[in-house]
Amino acid sequence: MRPVRSSLAVLSLSVVLTVTTACGTLPRWPTVPGAVTAAEAAPLPARGPFVAAANPLAVAAGMAVLQRGGSAVDAAVAVQAVLGLVEPQSSGLGGGAFLMHFDAATGEVTAYDGRETAPASATARLFYEDGKPLGFGDAVLSGRSTGTPGVVAMLGLAQHDHGSLAWAGLFGDAAALALDGFIVSPRLAGFIAAPAGQARTGWADAYFTRPDGGRYGAGDRLRNPAYAETLARIAAGGPQAFYRGPIAEGIAATVAEAPRPGDLTTADIAAYSPIERGALCRPYRIYVICVPPPPSSGVALLQLLAMAEQTPDIDQGPDSAAAWTAFAQLQRLMYADRNRYVGDPAFVGVPVAGLLDPAYVAGRAALAPGLNGAAAAGTPPGGIFRGADATAEPAGTSHVVIVDAAGNAVSMTTTVESVFGSGRMTGGFFLNNQLTDFSFEPTRPDGGPAANAVAAGKRPRSSMSPVIILDRQGRLVGALGSPGGSSILAYNAKALIATLDWNLPVQTAFDLPNLVAKGDGFGADTDRFAAALAADLAARGIELRPNASENSGLHGGLWRDGHWDGGADDRREGVVATADPASGR
Q: Which domains does the chain have, with CATH numbers?
C-alpha cells in the first residue's frame, strides 16, 4: 500500500476563490425570502460533536471516539468499521470510498480517493463472454467484478494526516459487536430475505442462515467472529495488514473461485495506493461547495449548481412545478455531459475546467427550457468527444458526516457497489463488485472510446460526491451526501438547493420527494409529490414514474444560529447525534 499525494493535494479556499472569480463566476445573493445573508451564514465557528450516519450503532461508535478526544477522521474509522458489520449491504472493508476533509485550523479542504482499482490483467473486454457483454447480474456475481478494496488504505492515509488517537484503538466497538452479536435491523433483514442475487450466494447463505436452518430476520442477534479477527489484524498491524498477509490472500482466493473466476492477485492488492487529491471547490450563491475531483462525478454536481444559478425558476421553491421542471431539465444536461466525459483522470483527459466554464455553463442552461426528451452531451472547452457510455450503477452505498470538537469535518460516501457487493465473503466481510461500475462497452459502433472503459489499474467512474459547504470567508457551514448509484448527483443537488436556496430545515429538505431525470425518463418518489403538484408537472411534460434506482440516504447538517441543524433521510435507518439534542433527530 503506497499512498499517493497529488501535486495539488490540498487546494486552499483562497486559491479556489481567486481562480473561480477570475473565470467570471461572481457571488449571487439568494432571492428566496428568509434566506440567510453572508454575515449570518456562520457567525460562530462550527464545532462538534456531530455524527450523522445510516445506523445508530455506527453513530454511537463515532460519538464515543469524539468524546475521547478523537478527531473527525478517527471517528470515521470507527463508524466505517461498524457500518461494515451492521449494514453490509451498503459498505464495508471490502469496498471503497471518497472522503472530504475540512481542517479547521488551516481552512484547507482535502479530497481522499479510496476508489477500487482494476487488476493488472484487466482489459477493456473484462466483462465479455463469447464475443458479447455479460448480463449485468452475471457480471456482478462473478469474480471479475471485484477490484482492490480502497477504503481501509484511504482511511489509513487520512487518519495518518488528521488523526488524534492511536489507530489501534479505533476498532473496539466494532469488534465487540462482531463477537457479542448485533440485532439485525429491519432494512438489513429485508435484503437478507431476497430470493436471489448476492443474498443467495454460497457465502451469503453460510453467513445469513441461523443454526436452526432459517434465515436471520429483524430482531435476531447475528455474530461475526471472523470479522472481529479481521479487525484485530488491522488494528494491530495498521492498514497495511489488510493489503498483505492472510487478509489479502483470502480476498484473492475468494475472487478466484467459480463462477467466472477473477484475476485479482495478492500483487494487485499489495500495490494499491490511496490518493490525496486537490479538492474541487466553486462558489454557489453566497457559499463555496467542495467535492472530490474525478474519478468522482463531483464536477457534474458543481455544473448543475452553476446552471441553477442561471435558472430563475429554481428560486420559486419546493411547491413550484416550474422549479421542479427546471431542476429536471438541468439534470438531463448534467448527466449527458457526465456520462460522456468523466472517468479516471490518470487514463482520460477530463475537461473539468471546461465543464465549469461560465460561458459553457450559461449555454447549457439556456438549452433547458427547450428540452424535449434526452439531452445530448455538449462540447466543453478542452473536451475530447468520447464514445457512448454503457455504465450501470446499482444500489449498495452509505454516507457519513462527522464534525469534531475542534471543528474539523468529514463528509464520506462509502460503498461495496451493489447490495452485498459481489455476494462473496472473506474474513467476515463482503467483497465489492465495483468493476461493474465500468462501461461494459469499451467503444461505440464507430470505434470511439468510452471514457469509463475498463483498463488495468484504472479506477471506475463514481457518482459518489461527498460535499463540504463553506461560506465566502472559508468557514465551515455544513456537509452532506447520499448513496443512490448514479442518482446520487440528483439527491445531493436537491438537498443543496432545498437547504441553501429554499432555506428549508435540513430534515425537511432531505425528506422532500426525489426527482431523477436521466435520458427520456423521470424517476420519482411518486407517493411524496402532492397530487396537484404532480398534475402540474404532468402538464409540463414531466410524467412521474416510480424511481428505478437506489433511493436516497442523505445524511448531514448545516451550522445555523450557533448549533447544528442535522438530518438523516427518513428512507433509511440513520440518526443524527450531537451535543445539542435540538440539533438533530
A: 4-46+276-370+461-583 (3.60.20.40), 50-96+115-273+407-437 (no CATH)
